[in-house]
Structures are given as structure tokens and as C-alpha cells.
Design a protein that fits this description.
- With about 110 residues, this protein is mainly α.
- About 85% of the residues lie in helices and about 0% in strands.
- The chain contains 5 helices and no strands.
- The termini are far apart.
Length: about 110
């Protein structure tokens, strides 16, 4: 069963490489974040209602692949939008808010 849990993450590696290859050539980065997140939400919803285990695993692989594929382009936006010290502060703010949310102090 641990091999089954690795399948979505292996698919995510290929998705990150594929999305990363095309995002460097694209003039706009936001579609490479918005579209994968939309696909991910639909795939997760479909996986939660799927009666078939294989179909659920495929849909979860799509979900994780698209979420992880959007991570790379996401981190380039604060630096591009703000630049310099303000961009670095925006990235630090994102990291600190993630730490605050995951630490359970809400």
C-alpha cells in the first residue's frame, strides 16, 4: 500500500518538470497557477465521490500533480510584482503565514 501512496508524488515530479519547462517561455505566469489549481479542485472533488479505487488514485495523482506544478510559478510572482526588498518581504510574509497556519496556533 505504500507504493500506491507514492504514485501521485511520482506523477507530481513529472508535472513540475513539464510546467516548469513551459512557464519559463511564457510571458504571463498567472495562468500556470490558476489553471492547475482549478484542475486540482475538480480532480479532488471527483476523487472524493469516485467508487473505483483505481480512478480515485488517478484523480488524486492529477490533483497532487497540478498543485505541486503550480508551486514553482507561484514563487516567482512576488518578486516580479514588487521587486527588490519589497518582493523579499512579500516572500517572507508568505513563509511566515504558512508557518503560523501549520503550527496550530490559530
Amino acid at each position: 500500500s505504500s507504493l500506491y501512496s507514492a504514485i501521485p508524488w511520482i506523477a507530481a515530479i513529472f508535472a513540475m518538470l513539464w510546467i516548469g519547462k513551459y512557464v519559463t517561455k511564457a510571458p504571463k505566469k498567472k495562468p500556470f497557477i490558476v489553471i492547475p489549481m482549478a484542475i486540482s479542485s475538480v480532480a479532488l472533488l471527483a476523487a472524493s465521490y469516485s467508487p473505483n479505487l483505481v480512478l480515485s488514485l488517478v484523480l488524486l495523482a492529477i490533483c497532487i500533480s497540478t498543485v505541486e506544478g503550480a508551486v514553482g510559478p507561484f514563487w516567482g510572482i512576488p518578486q516580479k510584482e514588487f521587486g527588490g526588498v519589497v518582493g523579499a518581504a512579500a516572500i517572507a510574509n508568505i513563509i511566515l503565514s504558512k508557518i503560523y497556519i501549520t503550527s496550530g496556533t490559530m
